[in-house]
Amino acid sequence: MPNRVAIASATAVIVASVAVLRWPGDDLAPMTPPPGGASAQPEARQLDSRAIVPIPLPPAELDARTVALGRRLFHEERLSADGTISCASCHALDEAGADGRRASVGVGGAVGDRNAPTVLNSALNFTQFWDGRARTLEEQVGGPLTHPSEMGSSWNEILAFLNDDGSYAEEFHALWSGGVTEKNVRHAIATFERTLLTPDSPFDHFLIGHVDAITQEAREGYQLFLDVGCISCHQGVNVGGNLFQRFGIASNFFEDRGAIKESDLGRYNLTQRDQDAFKFRVPSLRNVARTAPYFHDGSVPTLAGAVRIMAKYQLGASLDDGEVDKIVAFLETLTGEQQD
Amino acid sequence: MRIRTILLLALGALMTSLLVVVRPPSHEAHVRILDSLHRLQTLEAMREQELVATRFGLSMNYDRLAQLAQRIDELRHEVPLDALGLSDTDAARVRALVADVFALADTKSRSTEDFVTANASLVNALRVLPRAVRGLADSPALDADDKQRLEALQGVLYRYSLTRDDALRADGERMLDQLALLAAELPDKEREETERAAFLGGVIVRDQATVDAALRDALALDVDTVLHRATELYVNTHSAHLRRVQRSRWLLLAGSLALLGVVAYTLIAYDRLNASIERKVVERTREVAESREELRSLVETTNAIPWIWDLAEQRLRYIGPQAEEALGPNPKQRLESVLGDLLPDAKQNAGEDLELCVPGDGEHDVSLRVIVGPSEEGEAVQNGFFLDVSEQRRVELELQQAQKLESIGRLAAGIAHEINTPTQFVGDNTSFLRETFEELMPLLRKADRLADSVRAGDGPEALAEELKAEAEEVDLDYLCSEIPRSIEQSLGGIDRVRKIVQSMKEFSHPGVEAMTCIDLNRAIESTITVASNEWKYVAEVETDYDPALPSVPCLPGEFNQVVLNMIVNASHAIADVVGEEGPRGTIRISTRRDGDGVEVRISDTGTGIPESARAKIFDPFFTTKGVGRGTGQGLAIAHGVVVQKHNGALDFETELGKGTTFIIRLPLEQPTEELAEAAA
Fold it and tell me: Which residue of B has its CA nearest to A27?
């Protein structure tokens, strides 16, 4: 006598089969995407084609709870190996998303070899890090966390810590069924960073027609910015941050500076292409007045100095002090309003 | 059943494997895949458009290109490659092709980046060069030729930028070399300006080529075709997969139906089997009930009364309804009181017959034979049977009586014969006496008259002569000798009759039912006498009595009956040997004291008992005698009398052809209880 188990499993198989037979997609015709499906995507949005455009407000669709969790993680020192360093240690929000140091100090007092770029408006950069090795903010999050001379931790330790900490674990589980995962940690921090935009800068007001939003000197500085050719690279919504450029086009900056390090090779370290040597992501000039020292090596403490070096090595132009002051005056108008 | 099970399992396995095979592609995934491929196509088209726009200065910043590259990169993760829903090989092919597409897109992004990098400096140089040239135009340090050459250089570079004419480029490079030479001769300010112009020109010459190459690279990468191929491949494999899935579905449907059929059939068979089992169970139950009923009625209608005794509660748990018949109403109580006392004994002596005497409802007691069933140690109940042996006992008694009567009947002829002979000659003698007396009467009268005439004296001589003559006539001497003998003979005959009657009286002992101490020798002697007719024609009886034999307590009538049976059997056995006219055999009867009892041996010289009969001779109704000579009761009764009633023993020694000796042993002391019971 076939027992009940056999009958039950047979029934289960039948039910499953019927379920399969009821599966949608009976039509054999290859599916075509719905009309207009692609054109409805945000990338089709017409971007402003003017050289510089104002910073938008942070996207409204960002989940407030995820942002809050990201903010908490961003300031969480216990994510680092010795519990002393958080993201905010080097990207202090009250120091324009940077640390004012030439090179950042990591766990155990380790000093890095590059200047910390600001986290403000980093969402508007087309890649992250000086050499652009991270394509997204999510990708970027893992870098400092696990870098031995930055936060020096590992994902295993980070996830274990977050799982052990009741309030974190609770919040993660409330937000995602997967709970504490590497992906969710990355997502939370990146989501928070997407809120760190600085709209409402005087220059943005100028751009939308408020001529008096910036001083005459700044306006002249802007003209110089255009005439000297700075605008060639520093353009777009972030006034830079959307292309790679070689440092030292007109003359060799590194030869003049001396002591070439590996980090000076920039993008070459990533692509190993000869033409990528000394190429860096053109930094955004948003809030540039607040993010001294300058350049990837933090070698230039003043904005005026930075302007001069840029003119000389990138554009082959020598500017007099007045011109530099005007350009600096213009650059100061790029400082926007922090949202937090 | 097994075949069906195997079939079911095989079908199940087939369907399960089909289920695994038939992983229908997710509709949503399909749409997403096509959508993302389509979006990639759109984005790539937009990127090409933007590249061209940027190249020709229609786009003022690189945000759009950067954003497109970012979107294309993100799209890579949005293609649900894990949820293709195709077979593994197909999925691998599609994945490889999609990977190719994105690799191509990556290369395109890289070329775009290179283009942007070069384009930024090129555009800058093209825009700033006229300003530098204009700055030198007013300088007194340069002569008109130089200024003209500067303008010519600017024109050549601009034309080159538009036409990419290699000849122009060669001109431009030549002119830049000349400019470098010129710059060295100029004062500081002019030299700086000239060098800047030369730098910008160099940027144009160099970066124009780079921009062109990068743009060519970017546009030459035909993502669209590869994308189209990937889409086509995906759609085709998807369709093929769908067709396969559809086919599998039909198979699955067929399998499902088959499985349903098997399951339905199984269920029906199961049902049917169930029903038939139920029917069988009902039937069996009825049969069991019937057979139980039969058994019960069988048990309860036999004479054996079944019972079950509860050992713990010391009461009858069950008693057959026959008990009421045998004992009258409410037999349980009466039985429980006696059975409780009896059972421990009965269990110990299992196998032995036990008898109970229970007061019945009438005036008679009921004799019950108790048969105790086998029981295991620790059992809570003891069962067994009662056999109402009252009737048997009564019949036995009657049978015994009948046997006695039979023996008496049998003896009657002999006894009659015994009595007849003396009676006959007593009669003859008496007739003889009457005749002689009649003859003597006239003689006596004449003698009387003679006496008278003598006394009167008138002629007594004549009378005397007459008397004498008559006396001689009747032969008085003879009479005088015969008559006393005749009388003597008659008295002897009477005495014999008296003796026989006396023996009979002693044999039957009427009225003696209790154990009585008797002289066994005398009892045996009278029995021999009574039975003389049985043996006297075939055998001599030799007796060897122990004169010192003490009196033995026994039931005389029954003991005599036993001895009689022995003598009769011995006679019959001898008769079988001697026939009509052989030499007479011998019956030897001896008594002697034997320890605490006495032993009576009755031997014959008869046939002996054949081997086959020896074990059965004490069984009731067993006989080897012909019809009319025996009922098969004699020895059985003898056994009963000796063993049961007298606590004695009855044995025999026999040898075929030589004869048989029966040995009766009776104890000298009967237990008083036994005496009393026997008396009762």
Answer: B242
Interface test with B, best of A4, A22, A49, A194 (most B CBs within 10 A): A49
Q: Which of B435, B432, B418, B415 is nearest to B493 (CA)?
A: B418
Q: How far apart are CA A332 and CA A4, in angstroms?
A: 82
Provide CB contacts within 8 A for B447, sequence distance 6+: B467
Antiparallel, parallel or unpaired: β B539-544 and B585-594: parallel
**Two tokens at A28?**
């054999």
CA distances from A22 to A15, B142, B241, B260 (A): 10, 88, 17, 17
Residue A61, SS3 per DSSP: coil
- Chain A's closest residue to B114, CA to CA, is A244
Q: Do A2 and B266 touch (CB under 8 A)?
A: yes
- Nearest Cα of chain B lies from the Cα of A85 at a distance, in angstroms, of 30
Distance in angstroms (rounded) separating the CA atoms of residues B367 and B387: 8
Is A61 annotated as catalytic? no
Q: Does pTM top 0.90 for this prediction? A: no
Helices and strands per DSSP (H, E), number in chain B: 19, 12
Question: In this complex, how many residue pairs, one in chain A and one in chain B, have their CB atoms less than 8 Å apart?
Answer: 180
Count of all residues that appear for chain A in the document? 340
Residue of A nearest to B197 (CA): A316
pLDDT in tens, B225-272: 888 888 888 888 888 878 877 887 788 888 788 888 878 888 888 888
CA gap A105, A90 in Å, rounded: 8
Distance CA B547, CA B593 (A): 10
So what's the pLDDT on residue A78? 93
Cβ within 8 Å of residue B10, ≥6 positions away: none
Could you report the per-residue pLDDT of B536-550, keeping only the tens digit for each? Answer: 888 888 888 888 888
Structure tokens belonging to residue B241: 């997969």
**Measured between CA atoms, how close is A10 to chain B, in angstroms?**
6
Residue from B117, B126, B206 to probe the interface with A (highest A Cβ count within 10 Å): B117
Catalytic residue selected from A76, A138, A150, A323: A150
Instruction: Confirm if B75 and B36 have CB atoms less than 8 A apart.
Output: yes
Residue from B648, B674, B675, B673 nearest B663 by CA: B648
> How far is it, in rounded angstroms, from Cα B567 to Cα B603?
9
* Whether the Cβ atoms of residue A158 and residue A189 lie closer than 8 Å to each other: no
Q: What is the DSSP string of A114-167?
A: SPPPP-TTGGGSSSBSTT--BSSHHHHHHHHHH-TTTT---HHHHHHHHHHSHH
